[in-house]
Amino acid sequence: MSTSKLASHSSGRKLFSGKIAAVVVWAITIIWTIPTIGLFVTSFKTDKNILEQAWWTSLLHPSFTLENYKGVFLGNGSESLSNGVLPYFINSIVITLPATIFPIVIATMAAYALAWIRFRGSDFIFFFIFALQIVPLQMSLIPLLLLFTGGAHIGSVAIFPALGIAGKFAGIWLPHTMFALPLAIYLLHNFIASLPRDLMEAAHVDGANHFKVFRMIVLPLSIPGIASIAIFQFLWVWNDLLVALTFASGTEEVAPINSKLASLVGQYGSGYTALSAGAFITIAVPLIVFFSLQRYFVRGLLAGSVK
């Protein structure tokens, strides 16, 4: 077989395999999206329509209403929705934004220091931080809560004061920041360490100190990595319920929207419309964040894996 025929045969096989891969990806995407579409359609239906017909038949015979979203946001007079979820929605935003920004700021500075500022024990510190990921989150919640509320003592000597931040927003920001730092530092370290050494050396030759190099070179070049970490952290904090319930200490003023969704079902398992509307509101914000930053996602996730 001639070289041209071999090349043509190989190109045909690659094209065929590419089409199969595209079909598989589209099929998985459609299957994965169907529950979200069903939730979206259900959120516009009345209780009667939900029980009488499946959600996909509503696309052929549409009968939709906005009362579900109005009741969920502003309240409908029921016991579970007396004030609506708007205060809890605002609480989730107040919790999520600082709990995303704080670890990214700290992790970016730490990753630069560990990657480009050589000092005795820097490798040990990096591996120790990475190893902290093996600590189970669930095992550290109660000890950390006790540390916040009562401090730490050896006999009568206080070695860590009681911060008194349980039941406040700061009491939720701090655990989220602490739990996010090991993975964030590890991923950003790999990204920042892959930046060109010649560029760093040229900046130092021109008289730039570490702070100027970090601010004018590292930060602009690290936007894809920072954006990918921001997506992970935002989704984790926004969807979190365990950490918020533990450190909110039952305080309604700082409870996130996830803690309110469980009560929307109603006493006897009804309230499907309110639950579907509230659930779609909850997933809408992460979807907006993801699609806004998704162009950085793959670049940031793979950066640093190959130099």
Give a nutshell description of this structure.
The protein has 307 residues and is mostly helical.
Descriptive notes:
With 307 residues, this protein is mainly alpha-helical. Helices cover 70% and strands 2% of the residues. The protein has 13 helices and 2 strands; from the N terminus they run ααααααββααααααα. Strands 1-2 form a two-stranded antiparallel sheet. A hairpin with a 2-residue loop joins strand 1 and strand 2 (157-160). Helix 7 (169-193) packs antiparallel against helix 10 (223-239) and helix 10 packs antiparallel against helix 13 (272-302). The longest helix is centred in the first third of the chain and has 40 residues, at 3-42. The protein is globular. The relative contact order is 0.13.
Write the SSE topology.
Elements: H1 3-42, H2 47-52, H3 67-74, H4 86-116, H5 122-131, H6 137-150, E1 152-154, E2 157-160, H7 169-193, H8 197-205, H9 210-221, H10 223-239, H11 242-248, H12 257-261, H13 272-302
Antiparallel strand pairs: 1-2
| Termini gap | 39 Å
- The poorly predicted ranges are none
- Can you give the helix content as a percent range? over 70%
In spatial order, strands of the major sheet run 1-2
**Strand runs, count:** 2
Largest sheet, if any? 2 strands, antiparallel
What sort of overall outline do the alpha carbons produce when their principal axes are compared? globular
| SSE ordering | HHHHHHEEHHHHHHH
Class computed from helices, strands and strand pairing: mainly alpha
Rg is: 25 Å
Instruction: Report the mean per-residue pLDDT as an integer.
Output: 79
Task: Quickly count the helices.
Answer: 13
